[in-house]
Amino acid sequence: MTEDRFETIAIHAGQDPDPTTGAAVVPIYATSTYVQEAPGVHKGYEYSRTDNPTRTALQTQIAALEGVDPAADGGAVATSSGLAATALIGYLLKPGDRIVLPDDAYGGTFRLIARVLADHGIAWTAADLSSPEKVVEAVTSDTKLVWIETPTNPLLKIVDIEAVVAVAKSVGALVAVDNTFATPYLQQPLSLGADLVVHSATKYLGGHSDTVAGAIVTNDAELLERLRFLQNATGPVPGPFDSYLLLRGIKTLGVRMDRHCANAGAIAEFLEADPRVDHVWYPGLPSDPGHEIAQRQMSGFGGMVSFTPAGGVEAANSIVARTRLFFLAESLGGVESLIEIPAVMTHASVEGTDLEVPASLIRLSVGIEHVDDLISDLDRALG
Ligand code: P1T
Fold this sequence. Notes:
Layout: H1 6-12, H2 53-65, E1 75-79, H3 82-90, E2 98-102, H4 107-115, E3 123-127, H5 132-138, E4 143-149, H6 161-170, E5 174-178, H7 183-186, E6 196-200, E7 214-218, H8 221-234, H9 240-250, H10 253-272, E8 277-281, H11 291-297, E9 304-309, H12 312-322, E10 327-328, E11 338-340, E12 362-365, H13 371-381
Parallel strand pairs: 2-3, 2-4, 4-5, 5-6, 10-11
Antiparallel strand pairs: 1-7, 6-7, 8-9, 9-12, 11-12
The chain binds ligand P1T.
């Protein structure tokens, strides 16, 4: 199995035919409990908060795709949402510990760190992790976790994972990489030295905007055991139906990402050349400050594009009201294209902080529709 390539692993890892029936697709084990032959004598499953076979298959699939080294005894923990995954990682910390996080990140991640974990005595510092000097300045002896997002949400900054890992290791801090925007198809942070990979599986992994879920992946057996303990102790598990939807969605991750990347690249070029647009953020554009590192660190530039229209906030509001194919909605990573204004939608919680985003910023989650139709839709909406 380990010699198989990404697209093959996506379809086969954790998905052997069902041993009881030969079913070619992993069944939805809709059960909360498992009958025991005698007290403590069972087939490996006791209660579905602790483990469920559909979730086990999903965890095997995700771990394999993130390149978990089978010899390292690592693995994945699938969770009830991306933020549940982040919260479990937060439980690894103690009062007095510090988290260094990016000055551009998903608003909900910031809210969890600054308004929940902070109340439990965990300090935080926001810094521009795309600047090596700023990382060195931000990381101190009390830093126990460096949280990376790359590309960041919503400004698509690129962080050099290996460089940040080197600084974090110098003070013994763990490094977690939120790999939601890139997916393991485009970027594998564990191979660059990260300790933990986090996903909002709600997005590209699921791929169809029909479920909310998350995942944590690690090569470290001790961390995996601790996270499994924390999940069982606190309870944020995905149900078997959600696990099945993810298993099914992930099978096509590679082909979907190829199309997301191609469409987003064409749209970024279209927007960059248009005088009705002020600025475009997309790591695939040679003009983007993260382009070189993205080329080295990723095998494609992803499906997210952000831009500011020349007409400011007023223009932004009318553009998002005029698109027909790009639905005005939060979230991202589904087959259908979405458009939103982060300042008042996904990132309302960062207003007035170091993470504040431009008020006229528009974020596109470019779907896998025909690219010519998507460009016509934006062309019309730009007015
Ligand atoms: O929504 P949830 O599955 O809990 O995942 C949270 C999360 C974590 N990390 C990143 C990079 C994310 O983008 C998200 C969720 N983001 C959105 C809902 C959004 O529209 O940006």
